[in-house]
Amino acid sequence: MTLPDPPQAILTEPITDPTAWLAAELPVPEGVVHELTPAHLDEITALTKALRTEPLPLLADREPWRALARRTMPGLSELAHSTAHRTETHIGTAVLRGLPVADLAPDEIRGLYRALGAVMGTAVSQNTRGEYIADVRDYGNGGLDNSAVRGHQTTSALRFHSDDGDLALLLCVRPAADGGTSLIASAMTIYNELLRRAPHLLGLYYNGFVYENRDEEDPPAYRNAVFGYYHGQLTCRYFLRDYVDSSPAVTQVPVSDLERHALDLFEALAARPGAATEYALRAGDLQLVNNNIVVHSRRSFSDGAEGGGRLLLRQWVNLDGGRQFPTTLCRHRYGMRKKPDARD
Amino acid sequence: MTLPDPPQAILTEPITDPTAWLAAELPVPEGVVHELTPAHLDEITALTKALRTEPLPLLADREPWRALARRTMPGLSELAHSTAHRTETHIGTAVLRGLPVADLAPDEIRGLYRALGAVMGTAVSQNTRGEYIADVRDYGNGGLDNSAVRGHQTTSALRFHSDDGDLALLLCVRPAADGGTSLIASAMTIYNELLRRAPHLLGLYYNGFVYENRDEEDPPAYRNAVFGYYHGQLTCRYFLRDYVDSSPAVTQVPVSDLERHALDLFEALAARPGAATEYALRAGDLQLVNNNIVVHSRRSFSDGAEGGGRLLLRQWVNLDGGRQFPTTLCRHRYGMRKKPDARD
Predict the structure, then answer these.
(1) Which fold, B23-329?
(2) What is the complex's ipTM, to 2 decimals?
(3) Which of A4, A251, A253 sits opposite B265 (nearest CB)?
(4) Interface test with B, best of A258, A261, A267, A272 (most B CBs within 10 A)
(5) How many whole angstroms separate alpha carbon B56 and alpha carbon B89?
(6) Looking at beta carbons, which residues of chain B come within 8 Å of A220?
(7) Nearest-CA distance from B257 to chain A in Å?
(8) What is the pLDDT of residues A256-267, one digit of tens each?
(9) Domain range summary for chain B, segments of one domain joined by +
(10) Whole-prediction pTM
């Protein structure tokens, strides 16, 4: 009689490559910053001029956007592509600084942003309307205690979490009047700490937690593994804890004390002094967050009386030749299914 | 900043006391057998005579049953009490052999059985009708693929499992024409093997699995931990796997591959050669199964054309001064809640 084989191996050695880092080891809070040059700005002008003569819908496929970017912005496209793909083996995050958001009209900003995303990888839909670009701002509908609300629609502090694509691209159009700073921590470092401090709980993270599926698609709840190990590579996806807390309304089974502990421990390891880097995004910063490697959070913010309020644009992008990982992670890696009856 | 404390410790050392055993180490397949003596049989005659003059309902409280047993069967009561409580620190099972079931009327058998249970501990209700004694026989309603059916109502092989009380008392009134043998394995030995072979999965067993709540009471599904560690003592409760497999109908969340693996591994460790003892109960055998320490199963059976078919009676009994264990295990330890509208 043979014993059954596990569906996947569990990594029992710590990660020792650059993807496992502490904030104190970063040269700057952003980790990596690439300031745009005057030549890059000239390329952006060429792009916006081309878009005026040959308009391209934001919902068009990737390929025409990528071709347009490569043609009008060869230098910036090269920088964007290499920066994006380097996050996979480096520290999992970087910032492109100095996009001229103050000098561009709203639709020009979105066009530039869609073009840069198309260079980096394949954008995926973030909702049932099939949209590639979501506004991260105060929607005025309150906080995450409301099951109809998603994190990017609030002013609340967001817990550490991952997004669905390999990369989250966050473009700061307007910072908040107060608060809203970004925090990023290496999930690989968190794994190393879990391996050292709570090795017997690792199976819980590989099995994952049940999340309410908010405003998106069937089924009403789903399981997501926090860690998966595939072909010698560890991958993380840690979705917003609030969706676990609200899942019993669907499953009729309470979240257990041990599950709560595992979630608390993960977040405490992300938030402990020295683990996460924290900084304010500036207008014109394009932040790259590799969801396979890091988790991110933000402080709560408040908008001033003037200026329209904090606005980030968000894309989820899968890298070309991106890693494979177990299907237990991230059912929405390839986007939310567009529903026929959803409004565009 | 301090990290959160776990809700309970995880045992990281193997169990080395007599509760962790292999079948080959048992002197006889039953582990411990106490044959009733002629003096015990005379005591049983005294009990049945007393019941004819002072009838006592099976649903009466424990105390009058215990008093009657102690008065009419002092020797057998002492043996039953000591045998039951020794299972806690010994191998978790024993058999009292030679109850005169062939010489007693059906209600006398149930009276004797209720009396012996009352000596050993506090019987708990096994269903929403508040019954202390359940018939384990073919109810003719088919197998466990039907969510309205419970294991004791079928002729199927039952997987390794635990029952709800500290002790399951199984009285064999009539064996099957063919099959139906009992298997018992030490859950403490299974734990030792899991600790050695799959230490990173232990958290899954401490967190437990979600079970459909069949035909019993609210809620429609609940989580049960397989192992719990409390005040230096490990306790197991492994409920019928079939109820996990059918739980997604309630929770709308599939059982994960890793959960299936953890269940498969537990059962494979119970069933592997040399782990479980197997033997046939004889008419008049009273089998004690300590659910804190062992798991049990049975082969499928078929009844012959004559004789009324296999009949075991089952009680669930909590020991006096029984162990404490985490509330994550065994929500029905103190019985199924009687529903006002259920028929007695």
Answers:
(1) Double-stranded beta-helix (3.60.130)
(2) 0.91
(3) A4
(4) A258
(5) 33
(6) 252
(7) 6
(8) 999 999 999 999
(9) 23-329
(10) 0.92
